[in-house]
Amino acid sequence: MPQIEEAQPKYLQIAYFIRDQILRGDLRPGDEVPSERQLAADWKVSRPTAARSLEALSHQGLVEKRQGSGTFVRNLEVNRRARELYGRARQTGKIYTRGEYAVITSAGWLEAPDHVTEALGLGKGCRVVHRRRVTNNQDGPITLSTSWFAPDIGQRAPKLLDAERIQEGTLMYVESVTGRRGSYAEDRMCARSATDEEAADLRLESGSAVLIVHHVVFDLQDRPLEFAEATYPSQRWVFEQGYPLT
């Protein structure tokens, strides 16, 4: 019979908490992370447990220890996925970190591609609401993404039709006007060559490799709430949570 997994070890819980702060952008490159002593006091664990959590972060390539100074966030190019964006929006009310901003390149009603209607549980050829955006930082475009919503949501959420930024984030806005709260999400990822349009938006050479993520958010009744397709350029890291081998 399948066995229920035990709770994660304390050192991993601490490491994942700090990792999520880094990926959300709450801790930025060059910021100092809490010391062993501080972690031991805050989490009520032993110093060796606190030290092991920092070692786990170092093994993941997220932090580096500077002799005599402390432990600091490394300067990494990271693709921030929906999970990190939602977490930041729920905690701070803002979806982007300092220096990041989105440009909405199109918004409104469209006849949805088949893979979109399938993800949203709609019939083929259905008209749905879309929002297409390019996220930028000081170095230029870092993500291209399109969110898709079923017709009933589009009728209840008029801001989705405007090419203006939604400060709290698209999903949180939809939750607030519809009363439907996102409960869980599923991601599918693949790598392929960028289309000409994607390459132009992300300022890549034609045919460059990109990472594609199909992301579906489900509400508390297991109904699809949002389907999003994100395109990320290569040479930027994506981090996943560790898992047991037994």
Protein model, in words:
Helix content is 31%, strand content 30%. It is an alpha+beta fold. The chain folds into 2 domains: 10-73, Arc Repressor Mutant, subunit A (Orthogonal Bundle); 97-233, Chorismate lyase-like (Chorismate lyase). α1 crosses α3 and α2 packs across α3.
CATH classification, class level of the largest domain: Alpha Beta
Give the overall average pLDDT: 89
Q: What is the CATH fold-level name of the largest domain?
A: Chorismate lyase
CATH superfamily of the largest domain: Chorismate lyase-like
Number of strands: 8
Give me the oligomer status. single chain
Q: Quote the distance from N terminus to C terminus.
A: 14 Å
Radius of gyration (CA) equals 20 Å
Structural class: alpha+beta
> Which architecture of the largest domain would the CATH scheme give at its second level?
3-Layer(aba) Sandwich
Name the shape in a single word: globular
Which range best describes the helical content: under 10%, 10-25%, 25-40%, 40-55%, 55-70% or over 70%? 25-40%
Helical segment tally? 8
Q: Spans with pLDDT under 50 lasting ≥5 residues?
A: none
Summed up, the domain count is: 2
Query: How is the main sheet built?
Result: 6 strands, antiparallel
Secondary-structure element order, N to C: HHHEEHEHEEHHEHEE
* Percentage of residues in strands: 25-35%
Enumerate the strands of the largest sheet in spatial order, edge to edge or round the barrel.
3-4-5-8-7-6
Features:
single chain; 246 residues; alpha+beta; Arc Repressor Mutant, subunit A; 2 domains; two-stranded antiparallel sheet; 8 helices; 31% helix
